[in-house]
Amino acid sequence: MSVGVIVHLENPSYEDVRQLASEAEEAGADWIGVPDAFWWRDTWSLLAEPARVTHHLRLGPLVTNPYLRHPFVTVSALASLQELAGPRVFAGIGAGGSEVRLAARISRRDAAERIEDLARLVRTVAAGGPLDPVSGRALAIPLSPVRIVIGARASGVLRAAGRVADDVLLWAVPKSDLERSVRTVSEGYESALPDDLADQGGGARPFPRLVWAPMVNHGPSSEKLLSRAATYAVLNNSAQLRQQWGVDPGAVDHIRELLVAGHIDAAAARVPTAVVDDLAADADPQRSGAVAARIGATSVAVAATELGQVGERVLWGREVLSAAAQASARASAV
Fold first, then answer.
1. Stated pTM of the model
2. Which is nearest to 229 in space by CA: 179, 186, 183, 175?
3. What are phi and psi of 70, to 5 degrees?
4. Which residues contact 253 (CB under 8 A, 6 or more apart)?
């Protein structure tokens, strides 16, 4: 069971990431994830900072995507980061934020296939295979095996995660959609190819570890994150969920236009409270622990939305995992 920290400061500086990483390690967190947002500082440059100032904390992008950098570049970046942090590096991969589609004008319709291909390339190179299978040329930098963490919400990506991920990050998944999401990961795992189910040690890759990243209102900064996450949820979830939330199709178009223009808070103001309510997890660790137990999450990711608060968030995550373990034990005893 692990507790991780996701950096959710807006456009974090190098000093911000250093401080957050130091706070996270001191608080006993297991890992830290740095966002890959092309409006902000480069994620790989930022990741060098926690690599230098921490000793035990695992670290990686959360999440990078297979569109804005060629897969060869991503594999090279992982190997370069390993030179600084050693085996602590993980590869967080996802479809890319809505800006990839809205601002960069990239479809993302083949996200599941692209994510699987990138995950397989990372594993191939880490096992000593070529970076370029056509020429047979190898990566000149050593790459050791890394855990593949896939952030997923859409059904296709959830299935891809089941097929190739070591960990599946359930970030900003509405409460009403959590159990369906886990079932979809299971469908993907059951449909995996034999090569994808084999780990690099010759054994069988177990079912992916589920990492739940609940959206919790701990105060003004986390409330702002929740509001913004609800805005993206309107765009990234199914028409059925939007109808359940009472989101008018015309409102979706208006929200999309505001986001493309960078007016995030104005877009958030257009989102019905039903969306926020469905995203918001209970701040009580016992009740959130019961949710974690119900979906089978064995890890929790907490949001670092301001400096100086990481220790409190990590403690909350530990309490959630403890409550989840107790709930699971009670269920097993029945």
1. 0.94
2. 175
3. -65, 145
4. none
Which residues are CB-neighbours of 57 under 8 A, at least 6 positions away?
Answer: 21, 24, 25, 29, 30, 31, 32, 50, 88
Cα–Cα separations (whole angstroms), residue 131 to 26, 92, 265: 37, 19, 42
Q: What architecture is domain 2-216+284-333? A: Alpha-Beta Barrel (3.20)
Find out whether 66 and 114 touch, Cβ atoms under 8 Å: yes
Name residue, tokens 């609940």: 214
Length of the chain: 334
Q: Are 127 and 145 in contact (CB under 8 A)?
A: yes
- CATH 3.20.20.30 residue ranges of the chain are 2-216+284-333
Each residue's pLDDT tens digit in the chain (334 positions)? Answer: 899 999 999 999 999 999 999 999 999 999 999 999 988 999 999 999 999 999 999 999 999 999 999 999 999 999 999 999 999 999 999 998 777 877 888 889 999 999 999 999 999 999 999 999 999 999 999 999 999 999 999 999 999 999 999 999 999 999 999 999 999 999 999 999 888 887 666 678 899 999 999 999 888 888 999 998 999 899 888 889 999 999 988 888 899 888 878 888 899 999 999 999 999 999 999 999 999 999 999 999 999 999 999 999 999 999 999 999 999 998 888 6
What DSSP letter does each residue of 94-152 carry, written as one string? -S--HHHHHTS----TTHHHHHHHHHHHHHHHHTT--SBTTTTBPPSS-----EEEEE-
In whole angstroms, give the CA distance from residue 251 to residue 271: 8
Collapsing DSSP to helix, strand or coil, 187 comes out as helix
How far is the C-alpha of 160 from the C-alpha of 95, rounded, in Å?
A: 11
